[in-house]
């Protein structure tokens, strides 16, 4: 909303809602996933803040008029509301949608750690949806993109041999910071190749031909928020407050897709490792720093915007229709 | 030598030798470090394979005629021989230099794991030089670049609280693969920005806007050789065969300087952490996945070509002169 871009509401199944997005591209991504997956809906609306209300957004052969998020009755008739805005928008308008009976699928971090709110990756934790039903207002949270990509690979292993400790180092694409960051990476790269000083509008660091610590705020314990999301969300997701997790989150000059180096220490020895998820898992090695096959090093890679956000949200919505 | 570039011998202190280099830039880097550090030498020669012999190499205000590595008496009068060629050159000619009384400082991996050969990082392990003395033929090995950068930071911590286990993920610059790889990264980047297919002469992978597993050969245990160097060299360097080490080595599209995410698990709780080495250490966090302050996450960064090779070699030579 800070960019004044139009953003969005949608009605899915019966009706649904797209939360106000920081950038229009988030909504396009949701619309694209909905279209590609042939998600069934009766009507589809786009909502945004009042500044964007009235704007028109064309996607494929349809045109949408953005509706005001704050208008009275904005959520009337909405069954599924996909929020892809910041945490403050979700906190402010999510409960209003729930009060009208909508199931809010929230991509922000606002409700992830709320014990009442399920944190869901459909392929690996359908049971986490619990009693959430269409027509009964509720919030379902999408985990953080780095968490989703890591847990897609680690969760089946956790079920198989119980993870005691996990050490993660990430290689995160600039697109996680938005379309503008991706464009600035291209611009900076061209500038550096031409020997010019790189333009720095988004981050203070140069990202062309450079890596840097993730831009999330650094907390008192020295970890940044992105790292702590991985720690806390993993504990909640696995319903295991004792699991030991540490993470180091780094941005690399890559346009799209996050990669992660994940070291896993297990309670039980491993016999066989299977990888069958959409997140690519490679470099699978028995960790030679741990005895009795009780450790594994893997390298995972996934599209942090698709599986890490939009796709996961639509998959959650699909579960509601089952 | 595969590139037919001239490479090199040098005589340092009394006299010294530069081993045949894969690329001329390695020698320039050594010459630059020698010059910048005002390394005292009586004479300085450059040696290379016979194909390069007779070629002239200008550096600053001097010109060197490259001498034939295989010529009889090539090492006569050489006190310190800095080998910056591949392992095969070091294996073939290193012992010949030693037989003539030279101290060989070898940047290759050829002798690193030899129990008779000290593995030295001058700032952190001067005592590893043992009985090596100028005038008494011997080989001293330079550790692998990723190992040096990691152990510059980890060794003082190890001495302080004893590392039980170390989990490393690297972010390695293309220049580690040579000047040609660095040039190809620039070329590929320009091509990708222009929407063209990237030229791939050095590696099969695209490295512009991409990351990939380190190009070292993958071994039967799934680790690649770069990773195993970190494991084995750390054990030898710390003289601790029980220390648990695992590594994941990744190349990132950065021109120069390696970075590493290092997780350290200690025997004793930590009280205070100091960082005082040339290798930059940041993001220092008590590892919250381990109790009683028995773990640390750090992010280290260093020039893998300077400290990781040429500088370390010259520093070893400097120790010999003391």
What topology emerges from the helices and strands here?
Two copies of one chain form a homodimer.
Chain A: E1 16-18, H1 24-36, E2 45-48, E3 56-59, E4 62-65, E5 67-68, E6 80-83, H2 87-99, E7 103-106, E8 138-141, H3 145-161, E9 163-171, H4 179-193, E10 212-213, H5 225-237, E11 244-248, E12 250-251, E13 258-266, E14 280-286, E15 295-302, H6 306-321
Write a concise synopsis of the structure shown.
The structure is a homodimer of 322-residue chains. Chain A is an alpha/beta fold and 322 residues long.
What percent of the residues of chain A sit in helical stretches (DSSP H or I)? 25-40%
Number of helices of chain A: 6
Q: Which structural category do the helix and sheet elements of chain A fall into?
A: alpha/beta
Count of separate structural domains of chain A: 2
Beta-strand content of chain A: 15-25%
Rg on CA atoms of chain A, Å: 20 Å
> Could you state the order of secondary-structure elements of chain A as H and E?
EHEEEEEHEEHEHEHEEEEEH
GO molecular function, one term (chains A, B): oxidoreductase activity, acting on the aldehyde or oxo group of donors, NAD or NADP as acceptor
Family (chains A, B): Belongs to the aspartate-semialdehyde dehydrogenase family.
Domain Semialdehyde dehydrogenase NAD-binding (chains A, B): 26-132
GO biological process, one term (chains A, B): alpha-amino acid biosynthetic process
Provide an overview of this structure.
2 copies of one chain form a homodimer. The first copy, chain A, contains 6 helices and 15 strands. With 322 residues, chain A is α/β, with parallel strands linked by helices. In chain A, the strands form 4 sheets. A 6-stranded parallel beta sheet of chain A has the order 5-2-1-6-7-8, sandwiched between helices. In chain A, strands 11-9-13-15-14 form a 5-stranded mixed beta sheet. Chain A has a two-stranded antiparallel sheet with strand order 3-4. In chain A, helix 1 crosses helix 6. The N terminus of chain A is likely disordered. Chains A and B meet through strand 9, helix 4, strand 11, strand 13 and strand 14 of A and strand 9, helix 4, strand 11, strand 13 and strand 14 of B.
């Amino acid at each position: 909303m800070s960019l004044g871009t139009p953003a969005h509401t949608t009605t899915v199944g019966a009706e649904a809602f797209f939360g106000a997005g920081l950038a229009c591209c988030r909504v396009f991504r949701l619309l694209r996933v909905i279209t590609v997956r042939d998600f069934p809906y009766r009507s589809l609306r786009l909502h945004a803040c009042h500044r964007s209300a009235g704007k028109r957004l064309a996607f494929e052969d349809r045109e949408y008029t953005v509706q005001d998020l704050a208008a009275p009755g904005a959520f009337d008739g909405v069954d599924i509301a996909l929020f892809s805005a910041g945490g403050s928008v979700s906190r402010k308008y999510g409960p209003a949608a729930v009060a009208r009976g909508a199931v809010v699928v929230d991509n922000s971090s606002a409700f992830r750690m709320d014990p009442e709110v399920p944190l869901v990756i459909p392929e690996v934790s359908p049971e986490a949806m619990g009693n959430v039903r269409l027509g009964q207002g509720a919030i379902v949270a999408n985990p953080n993109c780095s968490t989703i990509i890591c847990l897609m690979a680690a969760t089946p292993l956790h079920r198989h041999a119980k993870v005691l400790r996990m050490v993660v180092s990430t290689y995160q694409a600039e697109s996680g910071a938005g379309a503008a960051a991706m464009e600035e990476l291209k611009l900076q790269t061209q500038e550096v190749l031409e020997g010019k000083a790189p333009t720095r509008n988004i981050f203070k660091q140069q990202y062309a031909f450079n890596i840097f610590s993730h831009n999330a705020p650094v907390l008192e314990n020295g970890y940044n928020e992105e790292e702590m999301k991985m720690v806390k969300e993993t504990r909640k997701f696995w319903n295991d407050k004792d699991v030991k997790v540490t993470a180091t989150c780094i941005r690399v000059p890559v346009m799209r897709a996050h990669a992660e180096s994940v070291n896993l220490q297990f309670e039980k020895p491993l016999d066989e490792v299977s990888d069958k998820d959409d997140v690519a898992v490679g470099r699978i090695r028995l960790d030679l720093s741990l005895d009795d096959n009780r450790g594994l090093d893997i390298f995972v890679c996934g599209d942090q915007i698709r599986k890490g956000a939009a796709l996961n949200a639509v998959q959650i919505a699909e579960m509601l229709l089952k």
